Amino acid sequence: MSPTVEKLYLALRERDVTSLYALLHPDFEGHVAPGMPCGVGGAHHGRDAMILGVWGEVAGHFDTAPYPETSQQTTDGTIVVTGHYRGTARATGRDYAAEFTHLWRLSNDRVSWLHQYTDTAKWHEALATAP
Questions:
Q1: Domain boundaries defined on the chain
Q2: CA pseudo-torsion sign 8, 9, 10, 11
Q3: Which end of the chain is flanked by fewer CB atoms within 10 Å, N or C?
Q4: d(Cα 91, Cα 62) in Å, to the nearest integer?
Q5: What residues form DSSP beta bridges with 65?
Q6: DSSP-derived 3-state class of residue 24
Q7: Residue 6 is inside which H or E element, if any?
Q8: 30, 88, 81: which is closest to 55 by C-alpha?
Q9: Is 3-127 a CATH 2.40.50.140 domain?
Q10: How many degrees, rounded to 5, is the angle at CA 8 between CA 70 and CA 33?
């Protein structure tokens, strides 16, 4: 895995906003899985949109972090990382684990692009109250 992407996962786990700003390119573009809770699915342009509007919003509802397990770099430079998000929904106290695949691109040693795929059903199950 690229050292930059490794640092990004560490910053996400540690909720280190200063490092996230330093690691993301100013023109960052993120694509979050449709159906994600908290209304964060879809395209997000710029560091603030991703850090505050996605990761910050999710952190308000989940105590969660991504844990990468495999990494490959494609011939065009895209970094493909698979792993699991693990955490707890704050409102219900329910633990969850949701698989993910992240596609990352770098520009000038900063993360410039992300496309996230995840099992959104696991996120929603953790938020659901018992019948």
A1: 3-127
A2: positive
A3: C
A4: 8
A5: 86
A6: strand
A7: helix 3-14
A8: 30
A9: no
A10: 70
What contacts 130, CB < 8 A, 6 or more positions away?
none
Reduce the DSSP state of residue 16 to 3 states and report it. Answer: coil
Q: Rounded mean pLDDT of 8-35? A: 97
Express each pLDDT in 83-109 by its tens digit.
Answer: 999 999 999 999 999 999 999 999 999
Residues of the chain with pLDDT > 70, as a percent, come to: 98
Which one-letter amino acid corresponds to residue 71?
S
Q: Which residues contact 74 (CB under 8 A, 6 or more apart)?
A: 80
Q: Which residues contact 55 (CB under 8 A, 6 or more apart)?
A: 12, 20
List, for residues 49-84, the tens digit of each pLDDT value: 999 999 999 999 999 999 999 999 999 999 999 999
How many CA atoms lie less than 13 Å away from 8 in the CB half-sphere?
27
